[in-house]
Amino acid sequence: MSDVDARLGYVRAVAPASTANLGPGFDVFGLALDAYTDEVELMLEDNANHHDNDGTSTNANTTSLIIEVHGSSMNTDHIPDTAEHNSAGLALLSMMKEYGIRDRIRVRINKGIPAGYGLGSSAASAVASVKALDAMYGLRLDDLTLLRHAAQGEVASAGTPHYDNVAASLLGGFVIVRQEPLHAIRIEPPDDLLLCVATPKVDVPKGKTGVARSVLPDKVQLKQMVSNVANASMLVAGFLMKDTRLIADAMMRDAIVEPARMHLIPAYASVKRAALDAGALAVTISGAGPSILIVGDARNGDMSDIVRAVNDAYLKEGIDCYVRACKVADGTSIHDNTSN
Ligand code: HSE
After folding, report:
1. How far is the CA of 253 from the centre of ligand 1 (A)?
2. Helix pair angle (222-240, 244-251), 10° resolution
3. Is 112 helix (H, G, I), strand (E, B) or coil?
4. Measured between alpha carbons, how far is 257 from 328 in angstroms, rounded to an integer?
5. Whose alpha carbon is nearest atom 6 of ligand 1?
6. Per residue in 244-300, pLDDT tens?
7. Statement: residue 25 has pLDDT above 90
8. Could you confirm whether 82 is annotated as catalytic?
9. What pTM does this model have?
10. d(Cα 209, Cα 278) in Å, to the nearest integer?
11. Are 82 and 109 in contact (CB under 8 A)?
12. Counting Cβ atoms within 10 Å, is residue 208 exposed (0-12), middle (13-18) or buried (19+)?
């Protein structure tokens, strides 16, 4: 039997996509995006509080979670449905172990976020799952505790837990996260901050985030560190001062990660050039890529010229793409408690 009782038999949570790093804020900055969402439904199975034949209870393991992955977003077919290899499964197992939850739970993941393209797909599924489990058992856990469990899900895709995408997807807005000791802060974006995410339809290697992390330098020069600290600070000031131009200017000045990773990003130089020529204020790699994040200012009009220019730039390189104008999103929400 579980140590805590389920209060609800069904919970549905929706989590937004996110972009991490924002140039100089590697593993520290995240931004929730309303371009795509993942939905997770948790259903308590009829044989909840199940016992083994000899009457002993079953430990929280794969037999306690039945994972289903649905949806037609890019790469959904490649998402594992075993709990130990799935970001939602790992996050839920972490939480179930800590709170003694041994009920049998069906986890239906409805993917809307392209998986493996640098848009926080694994983070969104993990965050929606922990938020839904929290509601199902009435645990009322604080955000940092939910983050700690959700970040375990990132082990499935990145090999190590990292907190930027999960913090953005959980809290919404612009987030600053510190891993040790864990702390996360949400700041509201300026109203005129417009965004666009461009996703090339290319195959992404298994363990792509791990690959993208392996090309980063172990050591950086002091002047690179000073430059990134200065620009990361400017970017935070830009959010606090609601100054989209300051945010964009700082985002373009990453001395460490972009130079090391750009060779992994298809058509990066030409898409960046096309977006800037069409009026974008900043272009950077979205998380570990291959998606690209583009910043615009609503005072200069909408993003349609930029979207068109970016589409054309990919097509010239012979690459199909999704290019989506978007805005900053709110965090994860619990939607309703009825299954129909
Ligand atoms: N900060 C992480 C990275 C995000 O850039 O590796 C991965 O989604």
Report:
1. 17
2. 160
3. coil
4. 23
5. 288
6. 999 999 999 999 999 999 999 999 999 999 999 999 999 999 999 999 999 999 999
7. yes
8. no
9. 0.92
10. 30
11. no
12. buried
Number of other residues whose CB lies within 10 A of the CB of residue 231:
21
| Tens digits of residue pLDDT in 171-201 | 999 999 999 999 999 999 999 999 999 999 9
Q: How far apart are CA 181 and CA 255, in angstroms?
A: 26
Orientation angle between helical segments 143-152 and 164-171, nearest 10 degrees: 130
Structure-token match 């993208």, residue found: 212
Q: Is residue 209 flagged as an active site residue?
A: yes
Residue position matching structure tokens 């690959």: 211
With left for phi above 0 and alpha for psi between -120 and 50, is residue 20 left, alpha or beta? beta
Determine the residue of 31, 165, 285 to mutate for testing ligand 1's pocket, defined as the one with the most ligand atoms within 8 A of the Cβ atom: 165
Distances (CA, A) of 129 to 20, 146, 325: 20, 10, 27
Q: Which domains does the chain have, with CATH numbers?
A: 10-188 (3.30.230.10), 193-326 (3.30.70.890)
Element housing 294 (H / E): strand 292-297
Bond from prior residue into 181 cis (ω within 30 degrees of 0): yes
Give pLDDT, residue 1: 67
Residue 21 Cβ contacting ligand 1 at under 6 Å:
yes
Phi-psi region of 12 (alpha: psi -120 to 50; beta: other; left: phi over 0): beta
Give the orientation angle of helix 268-277 with respect to helix 304-316, to 10 degrees. 150
Q: Among 254, 262, 197, which residue's Cα sits nearest to residue 230?
A: 254
Nearby residues of 247 by Cβ (< 8 Å), 6 or more positions away: 190, 193, 235, 238, 239, 282, 295
Write out the two tokens for 290.
């291959």
Residue located via tokens 């272009």: 283
The DSSP code sequence of 11-79 is EEEEEEEEEE-TTT-TTTEEEEEEEEEEEEEEEE-TTTT-B-TTSPBPPSSGGGEEEEEE--STTGGGS
Radius of gyration of the chain (CA): 20
Of the residues 199, 209, 244, 332, only one is catalytic, namely 209
